[in-house]
Amino acid sequence: MELSRGTVCFSVDVEWATAPVIDDLVRLFDDRGVRATFFVTHPGVTVDGHERGIHPNFRRDGDTYRALSGAPAASDAEVHDHVIATTLSYAPEAKGVRAHSLRYDSTLLPLYRRHGIEYECSYRLPLVEGLRPFWQQHDIVAIPSYYSDYFDLVTHAAHFDAARLRLDTPGLKVLDFHPNVVFTNVPDEASYRSMKDWYGDPDRLLANRHTGPGPRTVLLQALEYVRARGIPVMTLGEINRRWREANPVPWQD
Questions:
Q1: Is 30 helix (H, G, I), strand (E, B) or coil?
Q2: What is the mean pLDDT of the chain?
Q3: C-beta separation of 13 from 151 below 8 A
Q4: Is residue 251 part of a domain?
Q5: Strands 134-136 and 140-142
Q6: Domains in the chain, number
Q7: Residue 2 lies in a domain
Q8: Taking Cα atoms as reference points, which of 49, 15, 7, 60 lies closest to residue 243?
Q9: Per-residue pLDDT tens for 74-93?
């Protein structure tokens, strides 16, 4: 599979955002003819024309864990299986996963595979050139992320400037955005923390949207950048399928 020209994937961790906030982000993609991959966290997330994956929350302070009968006495495998199955019920067609908080555990891989998951995106290698998918055990394709809006608002590594992302350099560029973060355009971690209590109130979020450079800025710039330069754009599902077709599992005869 040839990625030397630099293929870009736009991905979204839904993070329990409300429908108006999600719809706002969907429109940004639709208006520019770009298909994205949305990793869903809750039921009712409709993103027609885009791919859906799952974004399970394995943390024990999460609602999915607390909904498990006898959760404190359950084994890790039982908890993990419950969380995967519950989240998958929100997007039963999903073939991909990015865990909340980028949770990775090798014992999750066989559970993912048993539930029909084919690719996993919980690895972040910020701004590393030359990225590509690779095989994990249990025939899971691992697809690392190149950029995250949250990473940028914490580190200011790219200063919310798409030109600094070097999207036309070799390697796969998986960009990770979050609806509430893009909607509010928060410029730093302190602003992000201060607005979290308003995530259920889209009107208040919109009224307090940051007007300077921020995650919304870099997303819009990146969408224009790939269009203007003809950079290939794929969903993560397309990357998974093409990788599987071109790269047989190396340890299988």
A1: helix
A2: 95
A3: no
A4: no
A5: antiparallel
A6: 1
A7: no
A8: 7
A9: 999 999 999 999 999 999 99
Beta pairing partners, 37: 11, 51
pLDDT band per the 50, 70, 90 thresholds, residue 6:
confident
Rounded to whole angstroms, the Cα distance separating 170 from 166 reads 9
Tokens of 215: 């995650």
The CATH number of whichever domain residue 216 belongs to comes to 3.20.20.370
**d(C-alpha 220, C-alpha 168), whole Å:** 16
Q: Answer yes or no: are the C-beta atoms of 121 and 97 closer than 8 Å.
A: yes
| Neighbour tally for 149: CB within 10 Å | 25
Q: Residue 252 domain-assigned?
A: no
Write phi, then psi, for 208 (nearest 5 degrees): -110, 20
**Count of beta carbons in the 10 Å neighbourhood of residue 225:** 17
* Residue type for position 249: V
| Residue numbers of the domain that contains 128 | 8-246
Residues making up the chain, counted from first to last: 253
pLDDT digit string (tens) for 47-78? 999 999 999 999 999 999 999 999 899 999 99
Domain annotation covers residue 253: no
Neighbours of 163 (CB within 10 A): 12
